[in-house]
Each structure stands twice: as C-alpha cells, then as structure tokens.
Design goal:
This protein is of the alpha+beta class. The protein has helices at residues 2-33, 38-42, and strands at residues 66-71, 77-82, 86-91, 96-102, 108-113, 119-124, 128-133, 148-151, 157-162, 167-172, 177-181, 186-191, 198-203, 210-215, 220-224, 229-234. The strands form four sheets. The protein has a four-stranded antiparallel beta sheet, with no helix packed on it. It has a four-stranded antiparallel beta sheet with strand order 5-6-7-8, with no helix packed on it. Strands 9-10-11-12 form a four-stranded antiparallel beta sheet, with no helix packed on it.
Amino acid sequence: MASSANDLQERLAAARREADSLKEKIRAQREGLADTTLRAVAAEVEPLPRIIMRARRNLRGHLAKIYAMHWATDIRHLVSASQDGKLIVWDAPTSNKVHAIPLRSSWVMTCAYAPSGNLVACGGLDNICSVYNLRNKESAAGAPKGAKELSAHSGYLSCCRFLSDRQIITSSGDMTCMLWDIDAGVRIQEFSDHTGDVMSISLSPSDPNVFVSGACDATSKLWDIRMGKAVQTFVGHESDINAVS
C-alpha cells in the first residue's frame, strides 16, 4: 500500500515537472515571436490633446443591462444589445428607435453593425452568431424577419465584426476566431493560436485582410486572413485582455 502511494506521488511529481517544462517552452516560443512590445509601438504614437467629454443624447428604451454597442459607418445609427433580450437600432441624433429585434437568447455579449448598414449581428452565451437583415420585410411587431445563425463555436461568443455583407469574423471562449460566409452559413476559416478565451477583435481600417485579437492568455495577436495565422504576438499584460481597438 505504501509502495503504491509512493509511486503515485512520484508520478504526480513527474507530471508537474513535465507541465513546468512545457510552460517554459511555450513562454520561450511566445518571446521568440514577439519582436517588439506594446510599449515600444505605443511610444511612436503622438499623444492625444486633452479631451472634454459631455453627454449629447440619452438613448432610453432597454429594460436591463446593456452589454454591447456598435456604431454604423454613417455615424448616425448604432446598435445596442441588452440582457432584456432586445437588439435595438437607434437614430442617434433624434434618439429614436429604428428597429427593436427580439433575440432568441437574452444572454448576449456582443453586437455589430455591417459597413453597408444592411445587417446587424449579435451573440453570447448561446455560442451562436445571429445575423439580421434590416432590409427584410418586417414583422407586425416591427422587427426584421428571421436570422441567419452561424454555429460552430464550442464556447460563448465574445465579439463579432463584419468584413462585408457576405463575411463576418467572430471570437469565442473556445480560444478561437472564425471567418464566416454569411449567405452559406458556414465557417470559412478558423484562427487558433490563443491559449485562453478570446475576448475581443478589431479590424484594420486600412486592410480588410488584417485583424487583431485580445485574449485571457494575456496576449494580443495580429492575424492575416490570407496566411491563416497570427503574424505578430504582443506580450506585456499580466492578465486578461478584455478589449482591443
């Protein structure tokens, strides 16, 4: 009996040593990919002048917590997602609601407005990205009919951003990002290099083939869709990265 206990302790100790060795290899590989730091890149950015902010409008209509918002490219409309189970499209200057879309799941974490202004999307703890066409014939309740549901993630949907009316990128708690064909409802490409939940993504304003992600592995990665992999890893944070822009 004592011999069995000793054997178990030795195996546990060996497993811990192996795990520590693997962690060290992962750390070394990360450092090898990081040819610069976030601090070094930020040092080249000119400081912003002092900004005085004040509220211009109050958009009232949700009945519970608002978890996400996203501006349309026309700088007039925006979409908000709330725990009240509604996705609301707003006309910001007038504070009017343009659309109120009932969601299948109220546990929404993200929303996005397509550059064309034709589509909005959302997702959350249902692991699904739901895409709504604002140009579709509306129901009696005033909401766009139906939704295209993109399902392949095995974890919650943390962020989504449109490339166009045909493609959207999502990030998830399953540690991956995915590129989707909206019309076909299928995953085109999967980006998996993070070792923690991917919390946020942001598209390059100048190159539609490039986006950045931030994750709970304390790294931010720059991805090139054409190459299908991360081309740059930024290290420096000591804990979760919850947002990138």
